Amino acid sequence: MGRLCRWLMLLAAAVAVQLSVAAAQGGGFGERPTSARRYPSKVNRGGSKVFRPGASSSRYRGGCDEMPDTPMSAVLQCSTFSGCRATCMDGHQFPNGESMIQIRCTGGVWRPQPPYQEIPNCAPVCQPECQNGGVCIGPNVCQCQTGFSGPTCEERLEQCNEPRPTIYNARLRCSDTRCSVVCMKGHETADHRTTFEIQCTEELGWTAVDSASDPIPSCQPICRPKCQNGGKCISFNLCQCPKQYRGPSCQWSVENCNPKTQLNFNGAYNCSGRGDQFGCQLSCPEGLEFSSPPAAIYQCDYSTGQYSPLPIPQCQGEYEVLPPTTATFPTRETDPEPRECALWSGKHVKTFDGQVYSFTGGCDFTAVRDAVTSLFRVSVVRGCQRPDCGWNLRLTVDRTVLLLAAGDDGGVTVTAEQGLYSGQPTSVSVPSEVDGLVLEKESGKTVIVRASSIGLTVRYSKDMIVLHAESSLWSTVQGLCGNLDGNSFNDILSDGLRGTLDYYSNLELCPAGPVSLDLTCSGAAERQARAACSQALKLADVFLPCQENVGVEYFLRACMAEYCHSLSQASSAQGGYSTGGGASAAICSTVAAFAAECERVTSRQLSWRSEEFCPLPCPAGQIFSACGVPAAGRCGASVSDLWLCEEGCACPEGLLMDGDQCVPAEQCSCRHNGVQYQAGDTVQQDCNTCVCTSGEWRCTELACPSQCVVAGDPHYLTFDGLRYDFQGKCSYYLVQSDRFSIQAENVPCSGAISEKLNYHPSTLPGEPSCTKSVRLEYEGVTVDLKQNLQVLINGETPPMIPWWVDGVYIKYASSLYISVTLPNGLEVWWDGETRAIVHAPAQFGDNIRGLCGNNNGNQRDDFETPEGDIEMSPIAFASKWKVDETCDDKTEPHGHPCEVYSEKYGEASRYCDNLISLPVFQKCHSVVDPAPYVKNCEYDLCSCRAELADCYCVHLADYADACAARGVELLWRAEVGLCGKGCPFGQEYQVCGDSCGHTCFDLATASECERRCVDGCQCPEDQALDADGRCAPISSCPCVYQNKEYRPGHRRYQGAGASLQQCECVNARWQCELSKTEKLTDNSGKCNATAHMLYVDCLPDHPVTCKSRHSSRAETSKSLYQVCESGCVCADGYVLDASSGQCVTADQCPCHHGGRAYAHGSTFGTECRSCTCESGMWTCEEQACDGVCTAWGNSHYETFDGRIYDIEGDCQYLLARGKETSKDQFEVVVTNVPCGAGSTCPKAVLVRVGHGTTQEEIALEADKALPTAFELTRYYNYLYERVC
To answer: Which residues contact 708 (CB under 8 A, 6 or more apart)?
Structure first.
């Protein structure tokens, strides 16, 4: 016995310390509390149900398990016994005027105190009350009806009944009743501002905002220094002086150059001047000579009054010099007035000041340009490569470019471009307005462009171009049309007409050869031309009204020049003059221009052509008509179309004009998006098919799917097509019904500013808001779509995408969008940033409401609130769809961002105009109007504080998606570098990828998927992503049946008897056909039935074994991406014994221990327990056993319960502590020290026994002798009593 005690004492004191503590001892130190078990919501696939354990007992007195719903704008406090108390927030009250009510649980139902039957909400209080139908939407905040304003809606806003005023020399950006005006370069208002605002009221009309000047300021030109002596500033640094003053600022009197007093010449003189130039030509009376040779002209300097060159000669006779005589001094000053320049037949020009000249060939020419600020330019462009062909016209105002061209039939087309001679033209309809340029159609072959802001009007047709300049352009223009200064002599530059044409030409665009001025004639040709042209232009009956209203003379001169030009062309070709077709055509072209000008001036319709005089040749099958083709005679036109009598070619009776062909009515073609379709052709319009029938489209009338879009800061487009903006910063219901809801969480932005900078929404009340995340709730399933395409399902991240949960399907529609499809067919796309799209199938049956509207085809009731009323403003409407009524919207108006941050508007406009100017977008303009997308883009870019691409690209994508949905695919990302997207290896960017075929699994399960265009990275055609995320041929994709996947080529049977079908897996789809015979293969013999084995087509993931039958892994659900294999399984009532490979009953399952198998009923025992094998499970009887804690080596530890761990620390550590009574207790402390590279080892152990004055201890240290245990009387007795 003594040896045993000694051995035990030494063992207890060793460095590898072993302490025995009775297992049955209670109340020891470090007793572990029982941890509560948490049951997360279980997410699975295949449509299986989700297990959610319920509460076991009521939480509140009265039988209620949950708190009642918190009333709107209230705080709820509840206790177990006394119920709940609801207290309204500041500025709110209950309907009875109280701010607090009691809510108690009775019979398991929460009930409010009388007089309420249901728990009421707190409503905001406005004192004084809102007037004129206003609604109190917050404490002392009234939402006014349209037409009212003020804190309590007491002020009536009068409606604007006046047309918007024209403000010259300015750009306007307007809403219905307010405009921001920016003066053009070199202009300002009378009070020296370059920007101002105007507004419209019913009483005052349009007036300036905060201006003490005129009711509406004007942008006047700036002249520095100011004009003097009554001079008028008519353009930037250009003064129009009174007749008596000259100089840049009208600072010099004309008397400074009065030849009577300053020339000092004794002969005759003829003087003239323009602006600051004044000169005189000298002459001597007959019989007298100059004293010295005179100069051609003597110029006077107004600043000095001195004529030069000097000396000035005198007139002298044979013996004497005559004194000065009376001289000729004509005055040629003209007051500014509107004037017109005309160009016709591709050869002739009449300038603003009346100069007429003609030429052929040459490059493109500048007809008129702004010579001061270069704000505008009108160019005439040769329409072909012949030297005498007609002109097209290019009008450039600021950054807007219009091109007008006439076809062979005289029809005019208008296209818009961005920048001079660049970009692809975009068709412009007439009438319309393009950046302030108003386009009108005067007749079927004449188009008018009014540029009111610069004072210019263009009238364009095939035969003539007329440019009308207002007096504000006086002396500020240059070009073929002259200087508009009243002096026709300076319209031709000093180096002559050829030099003038060269100066105003674009030498890089010369399709029509060199300029030729050889249009004059003389002798017999001139007499012949004058006789022919005079007779043509003075037809007694037809042109009589024109003689007094149109300047016949310059048309006569042009006619003669063109007549002679045609004679010279015929002469060079035939060797002599001819009065045949060429000369007749020359006369007719000028007469056509003359008649057109006469019709414009006199407003009369002239029927001047006849079979004998200038007959109009018509194509084969057509006949000439003085009134052309009426609307009723054209394909596809209704009788209500505007029609003016205009000469042309028409079809014989019974035929209709189709383009330039005459066809029967049933053969009329149709046009769609600028493309011509023949009779019988079809086009697709959304989900409807349209057939070209007799020149008209006849379409089916099927109900089509609809979509709601939320994008940017944020801009909303409802299911029914209503657009609005709303800047609330809470969570809102986009769509809500009794069964599901779709919510959007809006936070301050731009970009996702709070996401990126960790701002809380409440800290940024003045910022616009963006959608940060989207939540879908459907019959107990919650799906959260987060930033960067992250997904949470019931609060947990799914193991993989795609994923099913209770019929809700989550997948990637492309690399840019994640898609969630609900069992009712509703589909939500989310781009992981700020853009959400809700797709509703055709005739969606659920009764839905929310920010997306109600999808009933009527925009007027889209602002329906949860209470059933229809609000008039977006703020009042959207604020009622908050998910949490206590959230503060912070929707105070802060003005349009482009007005608040006006310095950003230029850049925003430049970027967003790409939707209009870039050729890649232009081909969709006739299908989808880009204007609202440009508006949204400018709004967001002006408020953008994140990366430009974050705010910019979403709007280009929004427009491209709208185009793709209508069949116009725009490959735009390659054209806009900021928005480019790289694709993983093997994938390619597609602007209209298949939303149903992104992955093999999509193809296998999307038999009812509605295909939609989606941009992003997709696999090439006939490929899809496999389970490893690589592009693979569709032929290698598996098929899915009953939530299991089968390899390509797998065959299965379904049905029975006459309806038995054989199905084969081909390209991820089952191809089934009626089976002509019974099942061709009987696999039942492949498995041993006597061994209780059965053959199955698809082996389970985890077969039921003796070991797994008690585990949840015994479920036989198949992983979606694990392909089925056929084989043998155990029959019902049997499980697999994995150790023997046999199918056994449950009570035959063996148990295992120590590498051995034990049959049912076998037992084995240890020192702590005895175990018996029962149906494959050990049943053990527990006995009290000692616990052992061990420390060894480099700080390795094993706890009493068998947990092994390491601690690399060089300190003292409490190894164990325990007690039975206050006196009988112990503790063991181990000291660790460094013992190698990064390691620590125990160096000493301190053992203490007892407590207080009776405590004893013993220390054990490395490399020291062990102490004698008998030195510790209590320690020895403790061990002896407990062990020995």
So the answer is: 716, 717, 718, 719, 734, 735, 837, 838, 840, 851, 852, 853
Q: Are strands 109-112 and 400-406 parallel, antiparallel or unpaired?
A: unpaired
Report the distance separating Cα 164 and Cα 172, nearest Å: 10
Residue type, 1046: Y
Do the Cβ atoms of 840 and 855 come closer than 8 Å? yes
Classify residue 145 by its DSSP letter: P
The mean pLDDT of the chain is 77
Residue 323: CA atoms inside 13 Å, Cβ hemisphere, count? 0
Whether the predicted pLDDT of 484 surpasses 60: yes
Confidence class of residue 1021 from pLDDT cuts 50, 70 and 90? Answer: confident
Name the residue type at position 585. A
Contacts by residues 734-737 (CB-CB < 8 Å, ≥ 24 positions apart): 734/708, 734/710, 734/774, 734/836, 734/838, 734/850, 734/851, 734/852, 735/708, 735/826, 735/838, 735/848, 735/849, 735/850, 735/852, 736/848, 736/849, 736/850, 736/866, 736/881, 737/846, 737/847, 737/848, 737/849
- Which residue has 């062309």 as its token pair? 569
Q: What is the distance between the alpha carbons of residues 1053 and 130, in angstroms, rounded to a whole number?
A: 72
Cα-only R_g, the chain: 48
Locate the DSSP E strands across 1003-1080. 1013-1018, 1023-1025, 1031-1033, 1039-1041, 1044-1046, 1051-1054, 1061-1066, 1069-1074
Task: Decide: helix, strand or coil at residue 505.
Answer: strand
Cα separation, 1092 vs 975, in Å, equals 68
Place of tokens 């010259």: 168
Determine the Cα–Cα distance for residues 844 and 706; give it in Å rounded to an integer: 9
| Among 933, 996, 929, 927, CA closest to 968 | 927
Contact, 886 vs 730, CB < 8 A? no
Instruction: Find where tokens 């052992």 sit.
Output: 1188
- At residue 1279, the 3 state secondary structure works out as helix
The 8-class DSSP code of residue 218 comes to -
- C-beta separation of 1075 from 1062 below 8 A: yes
Could you tell me if 1061 and 1072 are in contact, meaning their C-beta atoms sit under 8 angstroms apart?
yes
Beta-strand (E) ranges in 853-979? none
- Contact present, 84 and 68 (Cβ < 8 Å): yes
Q: In what order do the strands lie in the sheet with 464-469?
A: 356-358, 348-350, 339-344, 464-469, 456-460, 446-451, 437-443, 432-434
616 with 622: CB under 8 angstroms? no
Res. 13: pLDDT tops 60: no
Task: Give the phi and the psi of residue 791 in degrees, each rounded to 5.
Answer: -130, 135
Using alpha carbons, list the distances in angstroms from residue 74 to 91, 143, 274, 811, 887.
11, 21, 82, 39, 11
Q: Which of 127-136, 730-739, 1106-1115, 1243-1252 has the lowest mean pLDDT?
A: 1106-1115
Q: Which helix (H) or strand (E) holds 906?
A: helix 905-912
For the chain, the helix, strand and coil percentages under 3-state DSSP, each to the nearest 5: 15, 30, 50
The answer to whether 1100 and 1118 are in contact (CB under 8 A) is yes
Q: What is the dihedral of CA 988, 994, 997, 999, to 10 degrees?
A: 40
Q: Using omega within 30 degrees of 0 as the cis cutoff, is the peptide bond preceding 802 cis?
A: yes
Instruction: For residue 769, give the 3-state DSSP assignment.
Output: strand
- Model confidence at 33, pLDDT cuts 50, 70, 90, reads very low
